[in-house]
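Protocol step 4 of 6: record predicted structures for both targets in the notebook before any analysis. Target 1:
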Amino acid sequence: MQRDAARDVDDLIAMLVASAAWDDLEGLSILDHGLQTAAILRAEHPDDVELQVAGLVHDLGWMHRASDGTWAPDPRAAHDRDGANRVRPLLGDRIADLVGGHVAAKRYLVATDLAYRATLSPRSLETLAFQGETMSDAEVRAFEDRRDRDALVTLRRADEQAKVIGLTADDVNTWRSAIEGLARVSG
């Protein structure tokens, strides 16, 4: 297992709790942003628990395991790919692929939806610049061939909506049973 992968449900919850201490320059912690994203997805897609949990954990790539075993922020992370690696062993391929594809979905929407760029927060515009900007035509075609394209677009739109400072979403522990239901049994 990768060193920075969540070992079990308790470790994933610890990573989420630790993410409450870090603001990604938008006045909202990673945890609060994830909780808001998950709540939006739960309201819009109540039957897709994997999509909801992907919303909860989609930005955990900004966290890494420190030398003392605790979780700490890593502002240099490739947070989409790193996040997918953090959750794949525990939560499986679909959730990891959604986490790993949420940046590509932003680039796709910028390329294909003329109004989308205007919905991006200042931080999302800043990160778009170093994430590759607008997709090329070839990248758009490849993205459109993904089996999870619609779920990725849904996750990305919820990601942009979930940046309301002061909005209270459910506590992280309200997601424990959903995470436990999706978690792979290690052995």
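Target 2:
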Amino acid sequence: MDYITSASNPQLKRAMKLKTRKGREQAGAFLAEGGKLIGEALDAGLTVREVFARSEEALAAAGVADGPRGYILPEQLFSRLAETVHSQGVVAVVDMPQQAALPTGSVVVLDRLQDPGNVGTILRSAYAAGLAGAVIVKGTADPYSDKVVRAAAGALFRLPLTFAEDGQAALELLTAAGIRPVAAVMDGGVVYTQADLTGNVALLVGNEGGGISEALLTGAAEKVTIPMQAGSESLNAAVAASVLMFEKRRQDIG
């Protein structure tokens, strides 16, 4: 392991650039903080380029002391790199998975969701519910931002992501793959438990404020609604998506 004592260190400067979306896209890498997330990335077969820690003890506790190249930082430098208030003291630079072609099976489509917590939670639920992948429509929060990575809790490393320029492009991908689009709408749709969610479907989840784009909504084979108590304004996007994904799983396994 090496010791870094200056903010001008080239390895540290490269890592700091990954705190922005532009930096992540240019480098093809992102930051994973905490021993558990780093371990999940390694278990999923992702390449961990290097690891930064606040101490030798933190590096050893994360279980990566003998793996990727490690750097020890003084607290004032480590705190600039870490995102969490109570950090576990270790941050890794991880290569992004290669962009996946649309997988065979069912997927969730995130149409311009802007809240990173929602995005991460949906990806976590999608993996847990057995979906084959996720389609990320442009305008959605960066799936490799720190907040999404943490909220996804490792599912991000195992769930294939496909990116679409807009709703129409996403619809064309689904049509070509023979995947039936099902749109989640506030009202006017079939009650979700009465809809047929078996087979290869794409569950469409729209922007928190504006809903699903017109292109996707028009192209949906079916619209489903989750009934709510009178007076309820709406369900959180991640909660609604999770309800639908696990209803699909329930129908699939009988």
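Step 5 preliminary note on target 2. The mean pLDDT is 94. The chain is about 35% helix and 20% strand.
Proceed to step 6 after PI sign-off.
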